[in-house]
Specification:
alpha/beta, 21% strand, globular
Length: 149
């Protein structure tokens, strides 16, 4: 449904623009989107950075099939957090947008460890979340990220 939602498309473009502005001089060769859904955010970031290798990971096969149909140039893989099918130190950026709040606290820590394991030295984690009582507060999100670093 995200692919046809005007707000989500606007949000994805805005996130990609935000990243480009923050990482103005960075060259990203490989990115992974964990919880990629229909692949629109991944594609926006891929195009913004002219990325050579993009992989989307999600645990819902029918959604991945939609993503594959919409973006055949992206590699989409069926998998679920907290494990990730990514080689050690092989990715420039891992996108984790609106995903981590679905996991238990223990699985969040395991997932972030997997994400950091997959990043090349100097790589980036792009983490977004809804803020609120049943999601993250700004403090709890910061604390989670800092606990792994």
């Amino acid at each position: 449904a995200h692919g046809k939602n005007g707000y989500q498309l606007f949000r994805h473009e805005a996130l990609a623009h935000f990243l480009r502005k923050k990482l103005m001089d960075e060259e990203l060769n490989s990115i992974v989107d964990v919880g990629c859904g229909s692949g629109h955010l991944l594609d926006s970031i891929r195009l913004t950075f002219d990325v050579n290798s993009a992989r989307g990971i999600d645990f819902i096969e029918p959604v991945l099939q939609i993503a594959r149909n919409n973006f055949p140039e992206i590699d989409f893989v069926l998998s679920a957090l907290p494990q990730l099918p990514i080689n050690n130190h092989s990715v420039d950026m891992v996108i984790v947008s609106e995903v981590l709040y679905y996991l238990s606290e223990e699985d969040r820590v395991m997932a972030l460890n997997e994400i950091y394991r997959s990043l090349r030295p100097g790589g980036y984690v792009f983490f977004t979340s809804t803020l609120g009582e049943k999601y993250f507060t700004a403090f709890s999100a910061k604390t989670l990220i800092e606990s792994i670093m």
